[in-house]
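Quick one, tokens below:
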């Protein structure tokens, strides 16, 4: 449930419970307790409705956050059963897949999509509440403004005598106006900053006028106009709560009773009677009630009787009654605090961290040992080393070579976000600690980015994170590089002896990992009329993807074919009488129906082929560990026989060196190489676009955007390991020998500060004067820097030739398939 909705409902429920309690005891306290105390009690209810203060152990907080621990909802999608299909063709995408997994992975294992629709309703509920709030506030404020405009037409000043009476009663307060108005039906006080008492433009006796003014001045002294505004705001916030309107009415009534009590407490019986008669005379003249944001002397005839009875029964309360009143007020305050509100609970355990590849399924890490501070309490928890953890599918991330792992403490928007620092990152393969050059991590927009290893295989990542002022936590998760991840336990629930079992077969198909991230599985068709019995699983382009490789896919050794082969093993193991399975692909989205002619890439596998390798495939389902092991063997995966990146064949080259004659360009190339070169193996190529150089006194400032790339050469194959495009301002100082030395290198900042940081450094080197239009030129170029991409390739080829490297090809992936070798020299 949305946090705002929880808070609103908890406040509404707390206030309602207090209100019901007060209505229940009202008959017993109506004429026994002070009206002022009763008014104060209702103000407590009002404050409970609008102030989100609460102790963590309050009833409402426990009610609304009783089961708010993070859920491990990271299994593969499960689709519903399908009935009534024709021609053995099924749309196996199931109930709409949360719009293709809106937040991919967040709604997995949500069989009937209840969680997705619940979240949609929660979001819609928030917008409905906001619309209601805006309408309620608009109606109240617009009505108030209209009323004030209406009053302006009927004002006339009070007489001098009336003003003297007011001054006497105000006891020195000067900022209150008294006006007559022919449109007001009853005396009233309006305005908080500039209060004004308005009386009907009719004749009042001196005694009546005094009673009227005493009443309105009492409202003024008790800040009742502010309470009226607070009540209106509370009613607008809780417009959906019908009980709120009874509470609002009761607060207004309690306000008038308290005001009457304040006026008459020092009056004689005769004066009380005169005050009551004034009320009767005012109500007699009042032809309609008003709900303006002001304190009126009399709004409804229905409440007049109660007020008159209260006036006549008023007497000085005994000490016992006063003590009881204070105790009751204290109990109501305590009740309001005890009921509390849904403010959420502080985490007394470390938060989950979530891992995903951009656009892929979200997984969560397992928590290991930690040292944690919570409300002054230190918690120390020890566990096995994460390499010994039993990881499940929701802890396993499928990745490609050179992918970036994104680490965050938020899975959904309403999750709490924690700030953390990385203390240590270890990567293990086959139980051994390994090192690879791109393990370095970096933060962007509060998320941690970590590279994946180059080599295919299964890796365990162990992270030690430091959470500010909380403690340190170890986490573990698995990354499978160029390997599919299966939730075999879930898939096995749909094992069937018959390929004609529509429901189970469609569920198996939908639970298979897609052979390529660009596609999504949509339809299946079954051939059950005659043997061999067959199954075709159809894949189409995902809604947010565009396939960048060569099409159609023809290579029998492509990643798509290899991953389809894995899926075939799983399908044959789960469907006993299936003889062949075909995985077919189209490079576009379907229009809601199966058009077989659009699918022009297909891979077909025979059961007999797998049985020769594994024997009885049904035995693999009885022992899922065997099936898992089979899926990771190279004989099934058929990894490419070409080892492009044989470390033993690596050729060491130095970094690019500029050999031109331009002095400024040489300065820039030398500086950028020093700035972007890496301590790791390989070499660096740079390509700068110089926007201009500005000399002032003994300083030279150059503005440049540089494309830098890092490469490693394995025999005749070149691998690009990383790169960046960064605008910068470089300031040099001229030495006594006429040469320049670097004084300052200032890069553009990331994120929202990018443009402003460029504008900030586009100044002269000494005077600091802004260089007109330079920042705009840099920003415009950053939107299309094809020139430095071409220059970088030119410099790369030049560097290879300068080092006598010919016949070199650049290894190029399009999300790893199909692989291209681009000739360079």
């Amino acid at each position: 449930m949305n946090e705002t909705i929880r808070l609103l409902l908890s406040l509404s429920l707390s206030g309602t419970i207090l209100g019901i309690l007060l209505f229940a005891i009202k008959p017993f306290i109506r004429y026994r307790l002070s009206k002022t105390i009763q008014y104060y009690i209702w103000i407590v209810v009002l404050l409970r409705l609008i102030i989100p203060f609460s102790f963590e152990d309050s009833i409402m907080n426990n009610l609304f956050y009783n089961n708010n621990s993070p859920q491990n909802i990271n299994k593969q999608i499960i689709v519903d059963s399908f009935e009534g299909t024709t021609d053995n063709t099924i749309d196996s995408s199931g109930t709409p897949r949360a719009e293709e997994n809106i937040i991919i992975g967040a709604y997995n294992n949500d069989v009937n999509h209840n969680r997705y629709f619940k979240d949609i309703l929660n979001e819609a509920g928030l917008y409905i509440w906001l619309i209601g709030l805006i309408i309620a506030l608009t109606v109240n404020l617009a009505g108030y403004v209209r009323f004030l405009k209406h009053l302006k037409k009927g004002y006339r000043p009070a007489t001098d005598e009336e003003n003297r009476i007011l001054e006497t009663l105000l006891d020195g307060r000067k900022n209150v106006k008294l006006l007559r108005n022919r449109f007001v039906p009853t005396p009233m006080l309006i305005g908080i900053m500039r209060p004004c008492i308005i009386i009907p433009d009719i004749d009042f006796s001196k005694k009546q006028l005094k009673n009227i003014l005493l009443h309105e001045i009492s409202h003024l002294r008790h800040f009742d106009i502010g309470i009226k505004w607070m009540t209106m705001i509370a009613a607008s916030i809780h417009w959906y709560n019908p009980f709120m309107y009874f509470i609002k009415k009761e607060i207004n009534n309690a306000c008038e009773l308290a005001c009457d009590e304040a006026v008459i407490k020092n009056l004689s019986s005769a004066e009380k009677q005169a005050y009551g008669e004034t009320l009767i005379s005012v109500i007699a003249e009042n032809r309609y009630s008003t709900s303006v944001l002001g304190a009126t002397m009399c709004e409804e005839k229905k409440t007049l009787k109660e007020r008159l009875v209260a006036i006549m029964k008023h007497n000085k309360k005994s000490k016992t009654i006063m003590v009881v009143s204070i105790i009751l007020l204290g109990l109501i305050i305590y009740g309001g605090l005890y009921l509390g509100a849904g403010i959420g609970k502080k985490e007394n355990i470390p938060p989950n961290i979530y891992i995903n590849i951009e656009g892929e399924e979200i997984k969560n890490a397992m928590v290991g040992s930690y040292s944690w501070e919570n409300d002054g309490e230190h918690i120390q928890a020890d566990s096995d080393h994460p390499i010994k953890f039993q990881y499940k599918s929701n802890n396993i991330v499928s990745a490609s070579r050179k992918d970036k792992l994104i680490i965050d403490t938020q899975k959904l928007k309403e999750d709490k976000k924690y700030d953390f620092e990385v203390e240590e990152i270890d990567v293990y393969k086959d139980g051994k600690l390994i090192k690879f050059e791109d393990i370095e991590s970096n933060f962007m927009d509060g998320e941690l980015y970590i590279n994946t290893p180059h080599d295919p295989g299964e890796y365990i990542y162990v992270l030690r994170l430091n959470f500010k002022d909380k403690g340190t936590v170890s986490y573990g998760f698995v990354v499978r590089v160029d390997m599919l991840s299966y939730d075999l336990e879930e898939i096995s629930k749909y094992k069937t002896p018959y390929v004609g079992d529509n429901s189970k077969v469609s569920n198996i198909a939908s639970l298979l990992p897609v052979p390529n991230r660009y596609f999504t599985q949509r339809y299946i068709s079954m051939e059950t009329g005659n043997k061999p019995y067959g199954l075709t699983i159809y894949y189409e382009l995902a809604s947010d993807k565009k396939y960048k490789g060569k099409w159609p896919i023809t290579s029998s050794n492509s990643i798509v074919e290899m991953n389809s082969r894995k899926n075939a093993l799983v399908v044959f193991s789960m469907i006993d009488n299936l003889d062949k399975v075909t995985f077919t692909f189209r490079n576009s989205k379907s229009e809601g129906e199966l058009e077989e002619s659009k699918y022009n890439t297909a891979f077909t596998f025979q059961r007999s082929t797998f049985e020769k390798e594994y024997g009885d495939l049904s035995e693999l389902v009885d022992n899922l560990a065997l099936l898992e092991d089979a899926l990771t063997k190279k004989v099934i995966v058929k990894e490419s026989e070409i080892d492009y990146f044989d470390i033993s064949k690596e050729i060491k080259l130095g970094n690019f060196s500029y050999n031109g004659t331009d002095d400024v360009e040489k300065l820039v190339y030398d500086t950028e190489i020093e700035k972007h070169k890496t301590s790791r193996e390989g070499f660096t190529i740079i390509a700068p676009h110089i926007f201009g150089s500005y000399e002032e006194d003994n300083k030279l400032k150059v503005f440049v955007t540089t494309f830098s790339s890092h490469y490693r050469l394995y025999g005749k194959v070149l691998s690009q390991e990383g790169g960046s495009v960064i605008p910068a301002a470089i300031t040099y100082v001229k030495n006594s020998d006429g040469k320049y030395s670097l004084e300052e290198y200032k890069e553009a900042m990331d994120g929202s500060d990018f443009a402003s940081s460029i504008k900030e450094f586009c100044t002269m080197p000494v005077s600091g004067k802004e260089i007109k239009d330079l920042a705009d030129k840099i920003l415009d170029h950053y939107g299309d820097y094809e020139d430095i991409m071409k220059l970088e390739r030119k410099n790369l080829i030049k560097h290879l030739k300068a080092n006598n490297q010919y016949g070199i090809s650049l290894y190029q992936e399009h999300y790893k398939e199909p692989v291209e070798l681009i000739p360079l020299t």
